[in-house]
Known about the structure:
Keywords: Oxidoreductase
Organism: Dactylosporangium salmoneum
Protein name: 3-oxoacyl-ACP reductase FabG
Mean pLDDT: 97
Oligomer: single chain
Pfam families: adh_short_C2
Family: Belongs to the short-chain dehydrogenases/reductases (SDR) family.
Helix content: 40-55%
CATH class: Alpha Beta
Amino acid sequence: MNELHGKVALVTGGSRGIGAAIARALAARGADVAITYVNSEDRANEVACDVKERGRRGLALRADAADPAAVAGAVDEAAELLGRLDILVNNAGVFPVGALSELDIATFDRTVAVNVRGPYAAARAAARHLGDGGRIISIGSNVAERVPFPGLALYALTKTALAGMTRGLARELGPQGITVNLVHPGPTDTDANPADQPQAQAIAGLTALGRYADGDEIASVVAFLAGPDARYVTGATVNADGGWAA
Length: 246
């Protein structure tokens, strides 16, 4: 697998979970990969080392997705240090859970800043570097399609917003040959949502396949959208959710 040879990717929130799996998948397909992180410096450096062990250049950059200047700076720094930018994956996010009465406006503002404004700021900065064949791929959530439990309204709101952004940017950037797509993962086994937690069986039961995904299954969908075989796919929402929304 070398379809991304010569390409440079930036994955926000790439130090763990789905983001780390995406970074490794893109590197395995030939891309040089930069990732951003906030607190997990050791884990971010570990992912960058994994990229390098695959024979590619790897870079870990600290940037809080809630800070638009930091996000834009990371995009520009990745393009400068790695010589170009071809692929942006908006993966960084926060996952607030709580009733309407429990989640205050400060939590609302922080969640929107990370989950919506961050991807917008990253896309805005990346558009200055991406050329024909460029890719912007955002990571949404299965709860943007179906919300079966209370306490997820704020999170679902932000992930649903990405669908509108994706369609709008696909129209705006299409004339430049840049595709923009959205992936909605289903329940995925990560540190934040382990497949062995007490409620995991009930969550898995809401999918058609009856199980959690692993990070590599989501990463492979992102890698496809980043590659040449997806060059005519844009403005799309891809549900990699095990049939959650079926």
